[in-house]
């Protein structure tokens, strides 16, 4: 299945909290839901839960998620 990379704008405090949760084996439900919503907004259907990849190092800080999507069907 193809992967769609999603970047979500956030603030540094939230980014640190998400990274800390991920390192402890947890998840950040709000950002995962936002990543899934972004996939739908782009016209794709998620095939699995978003996977946290990391954060950007610039301004604005962004959370990075990879989301497995169903391939597009063409006729």
TrEMBL record:
The name on file for this protein is Uncharacterized protein
Organism, scientific name: Catenuloplanes niger
